[in-house]
Amino acid sequence: MDFLRPASWEEALAAKAEHPTAVPIAGGTDVMVEINFDHRRPEYLLDLNRVGDLYEWEVGEESVRLGASVPYTRIMEDLRAELPGLALASHTVASPQIRNRGGVGGNLGTASPAGDAHPALLAAGAEVEVESAARGSRLIPIDDFYTGVKRNALQPDELIRAVHIKKADGPQQYSKVGTRNAMVIAVCAFGLALHPGTRTVRTGIGSAAPTPVRARAAEEFLNAALEEGGFWDNGKIITPSVAKQFAELCSAACNPIDDVRGTASYRRHAVGVMARRTLTWTWESYRGTRNTSEGAA
Amino acid sequence: MRVNFTVNGRPQEADDVWEGESLLYVLRERLGLPGSKNACEQGECGSCTVRLDGVPVCACLVAAGQAEGREVVTVEGLAEYARQRACGTDACGTKSASLDEAGRRQAQGTDSQTGEGTELSPVQQAFIDAGAVQCGFCTPGLLVAADEMLERNPNPTDADIREALSGNLCRCTGYEKIMDAVRLAAARQSEGV
């Protein structure tokens, strides 16, 4: 095994181009587990800890460009206003020790269906910035990023540079099922974001299909129901029948398996429950801010 | 490969390190610092918690090469680390006891590297006084994690303590005593004892 230590992003890209089999390691919270358990013996480890750019973020007009190695602790503490869904998801990651090391780039690189960040990224709307020495950088829409169980759209010579995540324009929520409040691989997880600007709702489901997925039929149903009832304008409580059908459609979007953490039928059921709850929480929050702003005006 | 880094304030060099080796292995097997415990090797148990450039991490999930040029504090260096922190904040040199203490430590052959001969840090003393040590295997990780939390958050709520220690497992299930110990350390810290 060789340990490659690029000191800059350019050096990292050059190293990845020269050794496409090199396994990038940043927080190490996935890669080191595999090495410690002898599940993986990469020819090259490509250490990204010295690439300072990966630890920075920029808050723009529309989106946040989040460096791939920004630890979850920073997202929780410093980006709660801009990225509330991802901040909530980050807070559910493992433990303080792990959150101090791990970042969204690792979640995307591993592309486990159980990665905590995925549902929040899908719900908020995001693009993954990847780069290779040969072809420069490109943005991959999050909807096209996950291609299979622990597979993603990266080419062998590419590295993940950053994630561009849309800044919240409305309430966002994140919910995760597990046996504890810490150190839990999600049995299943659900992210929901209201986008009042476009009058749309987006979702993300984790650990309930081969890849993280959106519940598109549920989103379309809810978008239409909210529009038809004038809910975005009148700020009425979402009718129970709408919430129920939304939940059922979210359950139907799952394609889960039975495993040690839970059964397929439990996961389907739990995703429906989380969908209904997160819809209620976010909608109540939307109604609240709406009433407050009207009262102030 | 060779790895150079600072451990408990002292420059260290480890040779013939395998590229896939963890920081934990280097600390325990190459540098003779077995305080950080090796249990799950997957970041689940927190018994290998150390500070890497001040930040609590699981040493089993840091590749040794990633520690190059960085500063590590292990449980062996916790007392000295806490002492220096206290000096930084309330000018310990003015306290009458500290000169005597310094002399006494020297006489005992103080070793900031292994922790032998040094006085305990406040959080270590609190663990003893509260009876928070049973088999002792989880204790080093808990001490490092608890000490870091008290540095950041001198007046933690119970929820703060639980969250800060949520990555550290105790299989003797001595959590209530551990909570007592951290509350005690926080109380003593705020009283300046």
Automatic annotation (TrEMBL), chain A:
Please report the stretch or stretches of sequence annotated as the FAD-binding PCMH-type domain.
Answer: 1-170
Molecular function (Gene Ontology), one example = FAD binding
Checking Pfam families in the record gives: CO_deh_flav_C, FAD_binding_5
Which Gene3D superfamilies does the protein's record reference? 3.30.465.10, CO dehydrogenase flavoprotein, C-terminal domain (3.30.390.50), Uridine Diphospho-n-acetylenolpyruvylglucosamine Reductase, domain 2 (3.30.43.10)
Supply the alphabetized keyword list: FAD, Flavoprotein, Oxidoreductase
Q: Which SMART domains match?
A: CO_deh_flav_C (SM01092)
Query: What domain of life is recorded for the organism?
Result: Bacteria
Instruction: State the protein's name.
Output: Carbon monoxide dehydrogenase
Give the originating organism: Streptomyces spiralis
From TrEMBL, chain B:
Has UniProt tagged this entry with the keyword Chloroplast?
Answer: no
2Fe-2S ferredoxin-type domain: which residues?
Answer: 1-78
Q: Is Cytoplasm there in the keyword field?
A: no
Sorted UniProt keywords: 2Fe-2S, Iron, Iron-sulfur, Metal-binding, Oxidoreductase
InterPro entries hit by this protein: 2Fe-2S-bd (IPR002888), 2Fe-2S-bd_dom_sf (IPR036884), 2Fe-2S_ferredoxin-like_sf (IPR036010), 2Fe-2S_ferredoxin-type (IPR001041), 2Fe2S_fd_BS (IPR006058), Beta-grasp_dom_sf (IPR012675), Diverse_Oxidoreductases (IPR051452)
Q: Output the Gene3D superfamilies linked to this UniProt entry.
A: 3.10.20.30, [2Fe-2S]-binding domain
Q: Which domain of life is it from?
A: Bacteria
Instruction: Tell me what this protein is called.
Output: Oxidoreductase
